[in-house]
């Protein structure tokens, strides 16, 4: 059991707003211009921002830190989240394409196989980027968000909203995991 004195001191890289992860000028999520026009662009913007947030929560950490299960007894780690979201992207794509879901990426489980090995870390980042791009490409073929796709006739809008929800929920987990690893905080 960790003692209070064993916990890292809380800190932020931001100077302008200490409750932020980075200063506004350094934030890749900050859209300096007007918000996107239309529902598809707005939903994609939210998804992109949550994807950036997850990657930002992982940056600067080594393989051991990324694999650390810093909120016991949970098996969740930042590396596990990267792997899990790659699997989620793959699974959601299976809702659109004929033939059912594609085979699982990780036979060892998203979180159980998230071990402190740089090759595992590199593979997780590559898997996530590849699966995101593949799912984005499949959904881009359906610009009408009301169209129903796949064997269950699910609306494209629902698939986009579910992906946003999945990332948003796990970005909250990433906040806590990162703070427990090195004390860094910020939204």
From TrEMBL:
<dbReference type="InterPro" id="IPR007061">
    <property type="entry name" value="MST-like"/>
</dbReference>
<dbReference type="InterPro" id="IPR034660">
    <property type="entry name" value="DinB/YfiT-like"/>
</dbReference>
<feature type="compositionally biased region" description="Basic and acidic residues">
    <location>
        <begin position="1"/>
        <end position="10"/>
    </location>
</feature>
<feature type="region of interest" description="Disordered">
    <location>
        <begin position="1"/>
        <end position="42"/>
    </location>
</feature>
<dbReference type="Pfam" id="PF04978">
    <property type="entry name" value="MST"/>
</dbReference>
<protein>
    <submittedName>
        <fullName>Mini-circle uncharacterized 19.1 kDa protein</fullName>
    </submittedName>
</protein>
